[in-house]
Amino acid sequence: MRQSQSKSLKSFFGTLFAHGNPHVGAQSHHRRGTLQSASRVDTGLSVAGTTLQLAKDTGEAASQVPYVKAVAGILSQILKIRDEIQSNKERCDEIIDLVELKSRTVLQSLDTVYRANGAEGFDDLKSDLEAYASYLQVVLRDELEPFKSQSRWRSYINRGKNASDLQKLERELDEFKDRFSIKRQVAISLDARTAVTLLSKPSVSPTTVIPQALPALPKLLIGRDSVVESVAQTILSSSEPRVTVLGQGGMGKTAVGTTVLYDPRIAEAYPTQHIIFSELAPTMELLGTRIADALSIPQAERGIDLVSRIVDYIHRNPHPVLLFIDNLETVWEVETEQPKVDLFLDILSGAGSKLALLVTMRGTQTPKTSFPWTSTFLSGLDMPDSVIVYEKLSGKAADASAHELLNHLSGSPLAIKLFALMVNEGDKPSQLLSSWNARGAQALEIGGNHRLSSLERSIYLSVYSPRIDDTARLVLGLIAMMPGGLSTLQPWFEGFESILPDGTLLQPALRTLRRAAILEEKGDPSRWQMLPPIRQYCLNFVNPTSPTVTSLVRLHIDLIKEHGDYTSSTSQAIILPEMTNVRSLLLYAANLQFPPTFIGAATANYAMWAYWQDIDESAMLLSLLHLPLPTSQQANIYLKLGIVHQHWNRQDSAETSFTRSLKLSVECKDRQREGQTHQHLGSLRVRRDQFDAAEASFARALEIFIELQNPLGEANTLFCMGDLHVERDQLDTAEALFTRALDRFVQIQDRLGEANAHNSIGELQVRRDQLVAAETSFSRALELLVAVQDRFGEATTHQSIGELHMRRDDLNSAERSFAHALKLYVEVQNRVGEANVRLSFGKLHLRRDQLASAEEQFARALEAYVDVQDQWSTAYCTFIQGKVCLRRREMDATRVAFTRALSLWKHLDMPRGIAETQQALGDMHLHRDQLDEAETCLNIALDIYTTKVQSRIDEALTNRSIGELHLRRSHFEESERSFRLALELDIAASSRVGQAESHRLLGGMFLKKADLGLAELSYIESLRLFLEIGGYQATPCLVDLGRVWVLRGKIGDNEALDAEVLRARWDAVEAR
Asked: What is the pTM of this model?
């Protein structure tokens, strides 16, 4: 029997040598001196035919030595692939030549061992054969298979691969050759009986539990407790546990599975546990053999039907068995092996309750078995857990650079671990962040090319798995160019499908990539997306100059040019979700030499879309000015640049841009843009409190638009002029201008402009305490905004209605309006709007004396303002936080907040902000009885209001504070003079709230002066005004009046706090 086996195996080896490589010979010797020429037997067989012949020749002998058969099978694939190589052929030929030459010695050694000892002679070679088979599998998959098709991006994969890499490959092959040569020498020197004694292992009783050393318990498994517990509970509670842990590479599947094995409950329920690493068994036959080895099933009991023997063995084992098969996808993803694996698992499941199966796999699919699996999919860690892992492994606190890089890593435990270990070795987070931005996944490695030591290697194994073909990789590369992913909505999805090469089926490719857990479809509406580390890697799958990439860029540019109306709900639905993709592809377009005018128009449109989303893209606009653009287009870019600068409170830069746009518009005689620029320049000057200059700009713009017969430009300019007169407290003039603008908008059927005019009229009516009329204006504005589907405008109007409710002291209605506004701001992704409404929420909480809630809202608003670099709003929010601290009597914190706000206002050159903060500092000093300091601050504020801001309402407010200062000093005449001056200013500004407050303070002054008659008259007038406007201040004013009535003997002391008595007394006063 042994003789026939030896002959069969020798025939098998001889066939392999004969048909392995027809290219090795004199020319191979000429190319590489390490290769020697060898004789070849020309059988006339194709490579594929040779492979079939090899299987036949192996016969009975090979069926008993699966490890040898695996080595031979993989060698056959390596030799066969030569004719399929399409790119980098010379280097691939050298690799195949090396493998063939070195493997000949290995196979000769195996032939010698087999002839000496038969199949038993391979018992001691199992680990060596396994390692060699796995090594050859890696060579095939990594060094040869990627070059089966021709593509430009292959050059990226081959970067840095040179003679030194081939020498490394040769050294590794020599190590295997030497290892098997030693076994050969042992076999030759000993007779068969002695060789069997030395090289084989004793049989083990099938009823003996063989303890197996498990991998070490993971020392750090953060954020996976719930997953581990869920898997453990499933195993413990199921009668026949069949569990899969799925996910992308590097998510910690192996760590979760290993941790489950260490659970004391699992150890008690399954005292026999084995872990099988599928990476070391690249075929189903080898995987079955490894399972049999783990269970210590003797060779004599295995036979042909190995899986049935395994099931029988498990049934006969006195203890239930838990098999943990790690990375099963290594075998299962191979097309020829998948049905074998599925069938194997189906039969293996016949062990019933005696067997628990725990399987980990890259991807989202489970094996296609007849029984169901309980699956758990591992996602990335959240940011807090990512930081914990990083800090524990690196031994350092996470700084700003670390946080930024952790955000890029999207919670991948492997990536975080590599990052942390590199920092622990001495790399700085800032350096690694820069490296990441430049090199992507290549930046994170700790030496070696193992999937656990290199992020790039881990990603490579996913995107080059057998199931991912070149079509899927092309789709992956194109989606990688879009940071926001591929939308499933039209026109984007249909447009993307239309640019793919003929014959490319998009949906099957997407399904494949989802099953491999490389792409994920998520969101509502859904988008196909990938994690940032994978996205950066996959950018290498596309040729930036290919027609497909050009078509992708043009698709986005055409759509951004087509949808230039930022207020259109239809355009918003199409463009807003794609902003990050548009930006990314515009940057590609700049490098692909698209026509400058084409890029310029699209980029200018994109920058204005970004402006509406509170995204600063001034840098992109500036970059356009280096292109050879027509004068008119340059004027347009400068105009938009000025708008962006103004929005971000870069006032000097804005004025420079507007001035440049104006000059260019005049040069090219573009009267329309000249008028627009004058209008924006006027708005800028209003913002800078330069009211006279602003009025001149608006007048010029209005003149141009009337000359051009442009009713829309005329309406917009009248609207802006109305804003100017509101700032000047010239409310009658402002109302007349808003009404004229409204008429123009109605004439041209511009419903959005009409809505904005109604909103501005409503805000003016609130200023005048005409709350019923204001509510009507806001309601009409809201009706129009809903009709045109302007969600941002709706949000702003709901916020204004909420402020109106607060004026009426209807805090519950105000809260509902603010909540509605916040919901809409979130929907349209407007962070500044969200922050603004949080400010309103904070003021609402202040009114309710809920200081902690108010502080929380102000803090969240401030965080958003800082994030979007809105310096004006940052200053204002800091100012409001100071007001909260003042309410809490936390004077040091108050001073810090006001000082910070004052510094920001000065940096922005905002006189009104400076004056308001000086006023607030004066009030703070009043609270601390620091009267001299208070007087200094209040006088500074009053001077600014009088000379620069020209705001009578603010002048009145400051005069009231100055009056309180004089009252503290008992300077009654100065105090009365200040309060009466404030009252005059309030009357001139039509501010009934201000008038009521001035009368109230006069009443307090007369009360302190003991002039009870004048005190009563002042309080009565104040209360009457507060009641007319529905102000919440009416109640405390009535209490003040009650104190005067007590002092005048009109009511008793015990009645002063009785609300019903006070109201009855007031009704009597009104009746008279």
From this structure: 0.60
